[in-house]
Design goal:
- This protein is mainly α and 179 residues long.
- 69% of the residues lie in helices and 0% in strands.
- It contains six helices and no strands.
- Helix 2 packs across helix 3 and helix 3 runs antiparallel to helix 4.
- It is elongated, with a radius of gyration of 18 Å.
- The two termini are 20 Å apart.
């Protein structure tokens, strides 16, 4: 596979059945923990997501202090996007799908945080200001926090399902080509 030549944007031949099943199980676990548990927390992954979120605030703040509040969410989105880009360049459909599922799972977290902007029930690390209360207040859309957060959560679920669907379709296409 290392010698295979690919055109720009093309991924390797279909993923293996094991990779396809693994990606779909990963997606189901993300959806289960996010949508069907009271904590809506994916062990280990969401701890890493929180670390990325918190690191994003001061790092973006070093560049532009007025944008510090955006750093957390920006980092939560940039890291999965970097993973997607990395695996796309390697022509690895399984890695791309895992990155897409991670992105969708982060969008579920971000949407939940957005929807909490007025009620502020979610615990905050360090007890600081609620990012989305400040952001939505700046944008004059605080009253729409639940709607915007819900839309982000729906988009996250769609991305997760789409990533699985694409893996399954690639696997099926590879099987049909092998006949």
């Amino acid at each position: 596979m290392a010698d295979a030549q690919f055109s720009e944007g093309e991924l390797a031949d279909g993923p293996s059945g094991l990779a396809t099943v693994g990606v779909c199980i990963f997606a189901l676990c993300m959806l289960y923990f996010q949508l069907l548990t009271a904590a809506a927390w994916v062990p280990l992954l969401d701890s890493a997501n929180l670390a990325l979120h918190e690191a994003g605030h001061p790092l973006l703040g070093l560049i532009l202090p007025s944008l510090t509040v955006y750093g957390g969410t920006l980092f939560q989105l940039l890291f999965p996007l970097a993973v997607i880009r990395h695996f796309h360049r390697l022509h690895r459909a399984d890695g791309v799908a895992v990155g897409q599922i991670w992105l969708g799972e982060n969008m579920l977290n971000i949407g939940r945080y957005m929807a909490d902007a007025r009620t502020q029930v979610l615990p905050l690390v360090g007890g600081g200001e609620h990012d989305w209360t400040e952001i939505f207040s700046r944008w004059h859309v605080l009253g729409a926090d639940r709607f915007i957060g819900g839309a982000w959560r729906v988009a996250g679920v769609i991305i997760i399902i789409w990533a699985c669907w694409r893996m399954v379709m690639r696997y099926v296409a590879a099987l049909e080509e092998g006949d």
